[in-house]
Amino acid sequence: MKLLLDTCVLLWWLNNSDRLGTKIINTINNSNNQAYVSSASIWEIYIKQAAGKLTIDGNLIGTLETLDIKPLPIMLEHGKIAAELPSIHRDPFDRMLIAQASAEKMTIVTADRRIQQYPVSTLEVR
After folding, report:
1. Is the pTM value of this prediction over 0.90?
2. What is the CATH number for 99?
3. What is the mean pLDDT of residues 61-74?
């Protein structure tokens, strides 16, 4: 299964947060699955860091490579799909994740119930 980690899930994963729970941790660690992070999530993290709302220690991109979390670039089709989504969710970063997961047949790992209202595969973090 191809897993697209929501930004919060990515941050919890990197910080070994117990918010993920055993099921999510085991799913991400399962060698039959591949975890991905969207370019939109990296952009969102660095925007929040620049605004002083978030602190990232070390080399985020290097850490992702070490953990074998694959990058998911934003493609032209993703932008089109994101723009056509119903207005359930207004956050442009999350809308991009929904579009990417839809286009690339991925499962979004998320705690955001608004994302779960879209016709996209999700794995809920409780």
Report:
1. yes
2. 3.40.50.1010
3. 94
